[in-house]
Amino acid sequence: MSWRQPPPGQHGVATAAACAKLALDCTVFMGSIDIEKQSSNLLLMKLLGAEVKSVQGNFKDASSEAMRGWVENLETIATT
After folding, report:
1. C-beta neighbour count of 55 within 10 angstroms
2. Is the dihedral of CA 41, 43, 44, 45 positive or negative?
3. Cα 28 vs. chain centroid, distance in angstroms?
4. Alpha-carbon span 45 to 66, nearest angstrom
5. Which CATH class is domain 11-79?
6. What percent of the chain has pLDDT over 70?
7. Which helix (H) or strand (E) element contains residue 62?
8. Residue 28 burial by Cβ neighbours in a 10 Å radius (0-12, 13-18, 19+)
9. pLDDT tens sequence across 63-79
C-alpha cells in the first residue's frame, strides 16, 4: 500500500475516510472561509461520520483551534 497526498482541500475528507474505516471518532476543524469554498468536501466529511467544527477565519485559524482542542483533550485524558 502506498500513501499519496490528497488534492488541496481534501485532507479532512481523507482523515474522515480513514477514521470511518478504522471505526474511530473524527473531528475536523475548518475555517468558515474554507467551509464556504468547499461545501462538497464538508458534505463528504459529514457523510463519513466526521464532526466538523467551524472556526471563524481561515485554515490557519482552524489549525490553531485544532491544536488547542488536542491539548485540552490530552489534559482530560491525563486527569482521568
Report:
1. 22
2. positive
3. 2
4. 16
5. alpha beta
6. 81
7. helix 59-79
8. buried
9. 999 999 889 888 666 66
What would the grid cell of residue 32 be? 468558515
Rounded Cα gap, residues 25 and 14, in angstroms: 14
Helix (H, G, I), strand (E, B) or coil at 19: helix
- pTM of this prediction? 0.77
Give the strand pairing for 27-31 and 51-55: parallel
What are the structural domain ranges in the chain?
11-79
The CA distance from 35 to 15, in Å, is 16
Q: What one-character DSSP code corresponds to residue 56?
A: S
Return the biggest CA–CA distance within the chain. 39
